[in-house]
What does this fold into?
Amino acid sequence: MNVINTVQETLDRVLLPYGVVSNHLRRVEVDKIENSDVTVNKDEYVVFRVISNRPRKYGDGVPTHSRAYIDVNYYYSYEKTDARVTDAESRLQAAKREILRDKHFRVANDVTPLPDVDNPYRGFNVEFAYIGVVDNG
It folds into this structure.
Protein backbone atom coordinates (compact mmCIF):
# COMPACT_ATOMS: atom_id res chain seq x y z
CA MET A 1 0.00 0.00 0.00
CA ASN A 2 1.25 3.44 -0.88
CA VAL A 3 0.39 5.63 2.11
CA ILE A 4 0.86 8.91 0.23
CA ASN A 5 -1.54 7.86 -2.54
CA THR A 6 -4.10 6.58 -0.03
CA VAL A 7 -4.08 9.84 1.96
CA GLN A 8 -4.18 11.95 -1.24
CA GLU A 9 -7.13 10.01 -2.64
CA THR A 10 -9.02 10.25 0.64
CA LEU A 11 -8.42 13.98 1.05
CA ASP A 12 -9.47 14.58 -2.57
CA ARG A 13 -12.65 12.56 -2.14
CA VAL A 14 -13.66 14.52 0.98
CA LEU A 15 -12.33 18.03 0.27
CA LEU A 16 -12.51 18.62 -3.50
CA PRO A 17 -16.32 18.90 -3.44
CA TYR A 18 -15.70 22.03 -1.30
CA GLY A 19 -13.00 23.33 -3.64
CA VAL A 20 -10.24 22.61 -1.11
CA VAL A 21 -7.07 21.37 -2.81
CA SER A 22 -4.60 19.14 -0.98
CA ASN A 23 -1.11 18.02 -1.88
CA HIS A 24 1.88 16.16 -0.48
CA LEU A 25 4.76 18.34 0.84
CA ARG A 26 3.75 21.71 -0.62
CA ARG A 27 0.86 23.92 -1.57
CA VAL A 28 -0.26 23.63 -5.16
CA GLU A 29 -2.31 26.50 -6.51
CA VAL A 30 -4.76 25.68 -9.27
CA ASP A 31 -7.39 27.69 -11.12
CA LYS A 32 -9.68 24.76 -11.92
CA ILE A 33 -10.33 21.30 -10.49
CA GLU A 34 -10.03 18.73 -13.26
CA ASN A 35 -13.32 17.09 -14.31
CA SER A 36 -15.32 19.28 -11.91
CA ASP A 37 -17.53 22.36 -11.94
CA VAL A 38 -16.58 23.17 -8.33
CA THR A 39 -14.87 26.53 -7.85
CA VAL A 40 -11.42 26.35 -6.24
CA ASN A 41 -11.50 27.63 -2.66
CA LYS A 42 -8.59 30.11 -2.68
CA ASP A 43 -8.96 30.74 1.09
CA GLU A 44 -8.22 27.16 2.18
CA TYR A 45 -5.77 24.40 1.30
CA VAL A 46 -4.20 21.27 2.79
CA VAL A 47 -0.59 20.11 2.88
CA PHE A 48 0.30 16.68 4.21
CA ARG A 49 3.57 14.82 4.60
CA VAL A 50 4.95 11.54 5.79
CA ILE A 51 7.08 12.59 8.76
CA SER A 52 8.53 9.16 9.43
CA ASN A 53 8.37 5.77 7.81
CA ARG A 54 9.96 2.92 9.71
CA PRO A 55 9.80 -0.56 8.25
CA ARG A 56 10.49 -3.20 10.91
CA LYS A 57 12.86 -6.08 10.18
CA TYR A 58 13.24 -9.30 12.12
CA GLY A 59 15.72 -12.19 12.14
CA ASP A 60 16.30 -12.64 8.45
CA GLY A 61 16.39 -8.87 7.79
CA VAL A 62 13.20 -8.91 5.72
CA PRO A 63 10.68 -6.16 6.51
CA THR A 64 7.54 -7.61 8.08
CA HIS A 65 5.52 -4.52 8.94
CA SER A 66 5.58 -0.79 8.38
CA ARG A 67 4.68 2.16 10.56
CA ALA A 68 4.40 5.64 9.09
CA TYR A 69 3.31 8.93 10.62
CA ILE A 70 1.40 11.35 8.42
CA ASP A 71 1.05 15.02 9.33
CA VAL A 72 -1.98 16.83 7.84
CA ASN A 73 -2.20 20.64 8.00
CA TYR A 74 -5.43 22.39 7.00
CA TYR A 75 -4.82 26.10 6.30
CA TYR A 76 -7.29 28.99 5.99
CA SER A 77 -6.64 32.68 5.25
CA TYR A 78 -9.30 34.39 7.35
CA GLU A 79 -9.36 35.45 10.98
CA LYS A 80 -9.94 32.88 13.74
CA THR A 81 -13.12 34.73 14.68
CA ASP A 82 -14.59 34.27 11.18
CA ALA A 83 -17.62 31.94 11.05
CA ARG A 84 -15.94 29.96 8.24
CA VAL A 85 -13.43 28.52 10.74
CA THR A 86 -16.12 26.15 12.01
CA ASP A 87 -16.73 24.91 8.47
CA ALA A 88 -13.00 24.41 7.86
CA GLU A 89 -12.65 22.38 11.06
CA SER A 90 -15.73 20.35 10.13
CA ARG A 91 -14.17 19.49 6.76
CA LEU A 92 -10.96 18.39 8.48
CA GLN A 93 -12.98 16.26 10.91
CA ALA A 94 -14.79 14.66 7.94
CA ALA A 95 -11.43 13.89 6.31
CA LYS A 96 -10.21 12.41 9.60
CA ARG A 97 -13.26 10.15 9.84
CA GLU A 98 -12.78 8.99 6.26
CA ILE A 99 -9.07 8.23 6.77
CA LEU A 100 -9.89 6.26 9.93
CA ARG A 101 -12.31 4.06 7.97
CA ASP A 102 -9.15 2.30 6.76
CA LYS A 103 -8.28 0.07 9.74
CA HIS A 104 -4.53 0.60 9.14
CA PHE A 105 -4.79 4.22 10.31
CA ARG A 106 -4.95 5.54 13.87
CA VAL A 107 -4.88 9.07 15.25
CA ALA A 108 -1.42 9.81 16.67
CA ASN A 109 -2.24 13.43 17.62
CA ASP A 110 -5.80 14.71 17.35
CA VAL A 111 -6.91 17.96 15.73
CA THR A 112 -5.23 21.02 17.24
CA PRO A 113 -4.89 24.63 16.08
CA LEU A 114 -1.63 25.51 14.35
CA PRO A 115 0.48 28.13 16.09
CA ASP A 116 -0.01 31.69 14.87
CA VAL A 117 2.78 32.90 12.63
CA ASP A 118 3.41 36.10 10.70
CA ASN A 119 1.70 35.10 7.48
CA PRO A 120 -1.89 35.29 6.31
CA TYR A 121 -2.69 31.63 7.00
CA ARG A 122 -3.90 29.92 10.17
CA GLY A 123 -5.12 26.38 10.51
CA PHE A 124 -5.42 22.99 12.13
CA ASN A 125 -3.19 19.96 12.36
CA VAL A 126 -3.89 16.27 12.82
CA GLU A 127 -1.35 13.44 12.78
CA PHE A 128 -2.08 9.85 11.79
CA ALA A 129 -0.15 6.64 12.27
CA TYR A 130 -0.33 4.00 9.56
CA ILE A 131 0.45 0.45 10.64
CA GLY A 132 0.51 -2.30 8.04
CA VAL A 133 2.01 -5.60 7.02
CA VAL A 134 4.63 -5.52 4.29
CA ASP A 135 3.87 -7.81 1.35
CA ASN A 136 7.19 -9.44 0.45
CA GLY A 137 5.39 -11.33 -2.23
